[in-house]
Write the structure tokens for this entry.
Amino acid sequence: MDLPVPIAPRRHAGLDGAVDVLDEAPARLEEAGFLDEAALLDRTFEALRAQAQQAVRKSRAARDRAERTRQRLVAQRDSLRWTVRSLARRDALDGRQRRLLAEINDELRRTDRLLEHDR
């Protein structure tokens, strides 16, 4: 039995491999004489590549913003915790001051849980 040559040679598996194979389609169509169709596909694929690259850039930027926000929150939490501990050691706190420190301490615990959950 005579086996035909595969239309598209095998590449590495997965989505990247499939993209690589399909990226070659316009050139292969052009080689076979389908010039207009190949040019249209090539323009379409270029637009899709540009969209994918933009999505990657946006994703990186969002991840970077989230990490900067997390770092800022950690720094604020640590600074506020130190301040609350220092204030709580004072002897002459009235009831309003103690309630405020307890409230802020509750917020610090919520922040700790949020940061733990975010990992």
User: Anything to note?
Assistant: Residues 10 and 23 are 13 Å apart (CA to CA). The first helix runs from residue 14 to 23. DSSP finds four helices and no strands in the chain.
